[in-house]
Each structure stands twice: as structure tokens, then as C-alpha cells.
Amino acid sequence: MGSLETILLVEDEDALRTLIGDLLVNSGYNILQAESPEKAILLAKQFSGPIHLLLTEVIMSGMNGRALAQQLIRPEVKVVYMSGYAGFKQSQILEATCILLAKPFEWDTLLHKLRDALASSLEPQLS
User: Fold this and answer.
1) Is 92 strand, coil or helix?
2) 3-class SS at 112?
3) Are 4 and 25 in contact (CB under 8 A)?
4) The CA-based dihedral angle spanning residues 90, 91, 96, 98, taken in that order and rounded to the nearest 10 degrees
5) Distance between CA 89 and CA 49 in Å, rounded?
6) Domain extents for the chain?
7) Max intra-chain CA distance, the chain
8) Taking the C-alpha atoms of 101, 122, 36 and 100 in order, what is their torsion angle to the nearest 10 degrees?
9) Which of 11, 85, 105, 121 is deepest in the core (most CB within 10 A)?
10) pLDDT tens across 34-73, in order?
11) Hey, which residues does 102 pair with through a beta bridge?
């Protein structure tokens, strides 16, 4: 179970965003949800509390997940990326040390990756 960490979930597919958001709320996390990188940035600016983790789709229109993570201006935020797109190599967009969760995934796998990322003492790899 989460300990009321706040996760910013960015997923452009409405049904999947709702499903993941519900799972995370039921697992004890506070969830902020956005359907686009631009809305996520606005939401993060308006939210006065800490955001512990960004759970974002890698490939989105307008801005990829890595660029979103760089623009959040919250260096303490851990990042877990999701992707159902097989047409890119992780090294093309993400650092090798980034956590990438391939879609479709099992819910237990998602929760495990989130717990690992939240427990990590490593700084986010954004450069």
C-alpha cells in the first residue's frame, strides 16, 4: 500500500487513465490526472503539495514523457514511464537508468515499479 504519496498520472487514453487512476487510489496513493503533457504542467504548477512521482506515457502528441519530466521543474519527482509503442528504442528517448513499463502490464508489476521508484534514493535521470 502507498503511504499517501502523490502521483501525477499522465495518460492520453481516457479509459486507461481512469483505470490506472482508480487502481492507484485503491492502493493508497493520492492521484493527480492529466490527459496531456501541457495539462500536467499546469496541474503541477497549481498543486501546492509535493508530487512524489510522475507516471507518464512516453509517446504523446506535442511532447514526449521525458520532455514533460524535464519541464515539471520539480527535481525531487521520481519518474516511471509507460509505453505501448514498440517503434522506438529506449535509448532514443530515455536514459538507460529510467524505469520503463511496457504496455500491456500486470497491475502487480505497475505497483511494484512504483514502490521501487518511490523507495529509490537515486536522483531522477533527466539529462
Assistant:
1) helix
2) helix
3) no
4) -50
5) 34
6) 6-119
7) 37
8) -10
9) 11
10) 999 999 999 999 999 999 999 999 888 888 888 898 888 6
11) 83
**pLDDT for the residue 124:** 46
Please give the torsion angle defined by the CA atoms of residues 85, 91, 93 and 96, in that order, rounded to the nearest 10 degrees: 110
Length of the chain: 127
Q: 93 by DSSP, 3-state: which?
A: helix
Q: Which amino acid is at 75?
A: P
CATH 3.40.50.720 fits 6-119, yes or no: no
- Residue 34 main-chain phi, psi, to 5 deg: -140, 145
Give the gyration radius of the chain's Cα atoms: 13
Render the burial of 40-66: b for 16+ CB within 10 Å, e for the rest: bbeebeeeeeebbbbbbbbebeebbbb
Q: Report residue 54 CA to chain centroid gap.
A: 3
Q: What is the pTM of this model?
A: 0.85
Residue 92's pLDDT is 53
